[in-house]
Design goal:
Layout (H helix, E strand, L loop, with lengths): L5 H4 L8 H4 L4 E9 L4 E10 L6 H5 L7 H19 L4 E6 L7 H4 L1 H9 L7 E6 L7 H13 L3 E7 L6 H6 L4 E4 L1 H4 L6 H17 L2 E5 L4 H8 L5 E3 L7 E2 L7 H20 L2
Parallel strand pairs: 2-3, 3-4, 4-5, 5-6, 6-7, 7-8
Antiparallel strand pairs: 1-2, 1-8, 1-9
Length: 272
């Protein structure tokens, strides 16, 4: 908290200034698809370098002296680009919980950018990643609660791979959780992963939380999860992230899933 005074003198316009930040970056976008309606639920904005470098090259430049400004700039950049590209559906933005001191203050630049671009706040989803160590769970809960009260959707990213896991879920129930690719990878062949993920799905159904399966690369992974009721997916099976563009989902990706779903529905009907 030693840098808390930073946001007191930092105006919302300053959050747009990458010159002041001294970190040049942009965004790639990856779709989150709904297989039940064969539609795009939304897109996640992913930090990239100006030449398409991966997120690690940018995040490696973030430290205690610029974390707040970087977090704010990411939100504004994501909304600016999404609006320019005509993004429909949800815009999913990762945020750094350790950069948020007071939610009502730290959200101002986001609200300004959304208003400027006429981008509805109920189409913005904030993801908190389990990969960032958060020691003050009460503070994180207050952030997520404030965002939900402001009309934003909330999600726990990389669920099952980070520091918080079920403890965070017990404290706060978001609109969605994103099951980490470490659990979805080869789930069609791995009994242990299936048992763990299916237990998570059961808990989420009881709590009224929707699930996004991340990192899905094969038809078999997708179908195994879809058979258990998962509708939202993100992964290379549908589209890779594209730099400053909104990827489309190839028709063949939908066709492979639909053929299995039709066959499964027919089999269930014949058993009645």
């Amino acid at each position: 908290m030693k840098n808390m005074p930073e946001f007191v003198s930092l105006g919302c316009r300053d959050c747009r200034s990458l010159d002041a930040l001294e970190i040049d970056f942009s965004m790639a976008f990856q779709p989150i698809v709904d297989v039940s309606s064969q539609s795009i639920f939304g897109y996640e904005a992913l930090v990239r370098g100006l030449n398409g470098e991966g997120a690690a090259a940018i995040l490696g430049q973030v430290d205690d002296t610029n974390r707040y400004r970087f977090d704010q700039a990411c939100r504004v950049k994501a909304i600016d680009l999404a609006a320019r590209l005509g993004l429909q559906g949800m815009l999913s933005i990762n945020f750094l919980p350790n950069a948020v001191y007071r939610p009502e203050t730290c959200i101002r630049a986001t609200l300004e950018a959304a208003k400027e671009h006429d981008f509805p706040t109920n189409r913005i989803m904030f993801e908190v990643t389990e990969g960032e160590r958060v020691t003050d769970h009460a503070h994180l809960k207050s952030i997520l609660t404030a965002y939900r009260e402001l009309g934003f959707m909330t999600a726990i990213d990389d669920f099952g791979a980070g520091y918080s896991g079920l403890n965070l879920l017990a404290e706060f129930q978001p609109h969605l959780i994103k099951i980490d690719m470490a659990l979805t990878r080869n789930i069609d062949k791995d009994h242990v992963r299936r048992a763990i993920v299916f237990a998570i799905l059961t808990a989420c159904r009881e709590l009224g939380i929707r699930v996004i399966a991340e990192g899905v690369e094969t038809r078999e992974e997708c179908l195994t999860l879809a058979d258990e009721g998962v509708e939202l997916f993100q992964g290379y099976l549908f589209a890779r992230p594209q730099f400053e563009q909104l990827p489309i989902v190839p028709p063949e990706s939908w066709a492979a899933i639909e053929s299995r779903r039709t066959a499964t529905a027919s089999l269930r009907s014949s058993r009645r």
